[in-house]
Amino acid sequence: MKTIHIFLIFVGLALIQLLVPFQMISSKELVLKEGIPYKFKTRPVDPTDPFRGKYITLNYELRSAETNDTLWTRNDDIYIKLKKDSLGFAKIDKVSRAEFKGSDTFVKGRVTWGDSYNGKVNFNLGFNRYYMEESIAYNAEVAYIESIRDSLPKNDTYAVVYIREGSAVLADVIINEMSIKDYVDKK
């Protein structure tokens, strides 16, 4: 094989390696730019993963829905169509096994278990990790734990998630109407 062919193959592979991350980043940026923001009430915990870094795992209060479908099994894909309540928090409109075509207001989740006796399905949402800068991650964990321990005054904690055509991007975690980054700086 000639040197020019090897060089062209190398350049092609290098371009592919640059285009794939660029496409992933640009699709997330498009969701942030054109998506619809929803607030999801949370109850986070903070693990450390040596391979992925510091993040807060968010457990959402929105994790089950009523359904007439009794055939849900663990790890099935579930599509959740959302609507907003009067305060802008996400509420379930309906759930389905198929995407809601022509709608920007749905997200994909994963079934944890179906309760056919009570007509409910429990699920996890795909945007449950909020990654943070290493230098403030521990302080954010401490601030959040303190905020949920304080019962007076009541602390409101929620995630701001942008949704567009089934894609979701977790933009921020808010504690008492303040970004967790600013909340940590204040503390």
Description of the structure:
By secondary structure, the protein is of the alpha+beta class. It folds into 2 domains: 1-34; 37-186, no CATH class. The chain has 3 helices and 12 strands, in the order αβββββββββαβββα. The protein has helices at 3-34, 134-149, 180-186; strands spanning 36-41, 48-49, 53-57, 64-66, 77-84, 90-96, 106-115, 120-125, 129-131, 157-164, 167-175, 178-179. The strands form 3 sheets. A 5-stranded antiparallel β-sheet has the order 4-8-7-5-6, with no helix packed on it. The chain has a 4-stranded antiparallel β-sheet with strand order 1-10-11-12. The chain has a 3-stranded antiparallel β-sheet with strand order 2-3-9, with helices on one face. α2 (134-149) crosses α3 (180-186). The mean pLDDT is 83.
> Strand share of the residues?
35-45%
Query: What is the count of distinct domains?
Result: 2
- DSSP, total strands: 12
> From the helix content, strand content and strand pairing, which structural class follows?
alpha+beta
Output the number of helix runs: 3
- Runs in which pLDDT lies below 50 for 5 or more consecutive residues are none
Descriptive tags:
single chain, 187 residues, alpha+beta, 2 domains, 5-stranded antiparallel β-sheet, 4-stranded antiparallel β-sheet, 12 strands, 29% helix
What can be said about this structure in brief?
By secondary structure, this protein is α+β, with helices and mostly antiparallel strands. The protein contains three helices and twelve strands; from the N terminus they run αβββββββββαβββα.
